[in-house]
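Why show two proteins at once? Because comparison is the fastest way to build intuition. When a single record is shown, students tend to memorize it. When two are placed side by side, the eye starts asking what differs. So, the first record is below.
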Amino acid sequence: MPPKSRTASPGPVARKESEDPEVRRRNAANAETKAKAAPEKKTKDATPAKAEQAERAGGRPFFREKSIYALQPDARWLQPSLAFPIYASTLLITLACCLFLEPSFKALRLQYTVVASGLLLYRMYYYARKEWMLFFIDLCFVNSILLLYSLWSCESGCSREWLLATYIVAQGPVAGATFPLQTPLTLHHPEAFESFFLHASPMWMAYAVRWRWPNLLGPIPPVSELLSVGFWRLYFPWSACYLVFLLLQPFLPDRIAGLETLMDGFILPASTAQSRLTAKRQEYSKYAFNVMKATILHAVLSGSGFLAAAMAYQYHEVQVVWIFCVLLGCLASGARFYYQSATPDYVPPGVYRGFRNMGLAWAMVLPTYLHCAGYVPWL
């Protein structure tokens, strides 16, 4: 006896309904709706907790898979949004207050603090979600925090050497880093704008303090003294602590050892938390050697920034040219960013472009300094 079919034959009512065109149309529409809802249900079921566990199992922060980083070129950044007028007005107001207008010191300090602190707090939230909190021990973040501290605490209570060191680092290594990093001036997202503001705005504030309230800094020191103060008073202590941490990081608990630092972007590019952890621990001697090389290179490039800042401190014309070069480089990088967002096939220039722009900046800064100092009066 053959087995009974698992599909029952349709009864009279079912046959009658299946022959009705309206019923068939409604059933087809319901089936299509269910098919479209299936992927949404699957996505909904993948709760953030489950997504996080899955990403952590693969060694990648889950937030990276759920969003595009604000400085990754994408067509979505070209869509009109309130971010563009908000950050454009923030940029113009801050530039005007620091470079062109003449507000009181307290008014300028308040305006700059509100903007800089707000952007820093947002970046802390943003980086915490992406597990990039160790980026906050980098020099640009440390200097920004120290600058804000000095603006409020050093009207009469800080040493002259400390004020000069804060100035020279803000003007030099932090601003000069925009060239090798090719930092873009972008306005589509708070994180994207903060990347530019963090590097470029401290030099604007330092300009205002230097040329409007010179009594805060005292007599003009020579270039050699500025180089020495900037390096030994601030840069060297930070660099030594940073180097020690990087060398000890592989021996710390997994949670900390797997976190990404700025140096990892050059030493271990495109790595996950797990692959970084493996590389740092299983190939420690290679990792330590690369850390030492990267630290030395950072110091050399910072030395270039120190020299530019020390020259800018001497003469107003040099200061203006240095600020102009940094702004122009960021504008060019920003234009390339948006062009790449609109043209996915575009291949941006490599790191050499940043060093070329640094050379072009020196081609403008050095002759200006030599002319102001009287070495080449015919320029």
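Second record. Ask yourself what differs from the first in the token line.
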Amino acid sequence: MAGKIQCFGLSDIGKVRETNEDQFIVADVNKSMKVHQTSVGLNHHTRLFGGSQGTLLAVADGMGGHAAGERASEIVVETVTAFLLNTMQWYFQVDDVHDEETIEQLRQVTSQCHEKLSQDIATSPQRRGMGATLTLGYVLWPRLFVVHVGDSRCYHFRQGKLEQITNDHTMAQYLIETGALSPEDAVDSQWSHQLYNVIGGGDQLPEPDISRHPLEMGDALLLCSDGLTKYITDARIGEALASDAPADEVCRVLCNEALLAGGDDNITIVVCRFLPGDDDENFADLDTTDMPIDQRSTQLLSPNELLQERPTDPE
């Protein structure tokens, strides 16, 4: 299909934190070939690239003191990248059968991230307890596959409507779902940033949400850490994506608004637009720019621990 993907990602340390524990990646995944010798008119050791196989978008928000959070999110993004390149099977057609196989393979990525964190802790015990969220979008046009653990988010925008397609793995959200807390009270609740499902953070394996979503020309995606959604409403995010502003401008405007509103956490945003193009233009012509990455401390509790510790409603 004619068209192109326009993506941009940025991460800002914010106004309070001493380090940036967020990480992100925007990448075009494609086949390549390195020429060692040939009799045709190519230089030896030339690398040739084929058509795009997919687009990777990911945001990870680390937790843990003494730079452990920064290290945790870095390991998660590095592991995701290696997994897509070396473990995921590549498909040359998109159909329901291959979709299910893709979902089953993506289910492995969070356990691999957890294992890598465990290996790092084994060599650096001072990092024990470090962990990270992961919100991953893998675009195989016209499908989006989402892998999600934690409270970073993925939004899907289409024809003026914004939908949050991930579910926050916070104690506040858990209490809302069990009827113990109202959505209105959850906004300022002490449980709103306490996670029960992360990568790392202890011995418990993460339980990822895996979902598949159809994409159409004109759609947009936004992935972010909670440093954005702490200050910027869904309505404002939808308004920004509804504009004709390019992906980089949307990221910068929303980041600046979050900084002006408080900016007490790291802020990471990835925006991806699916734009019409010329008939001879490959759809996966990825137009992307990123910015340098540069502390948050998140408490990890299980739902049972929360209910035991919560004799009365939080003030």
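One difference worth noting in the second protein: The first helix runs from residue 68 to 86.
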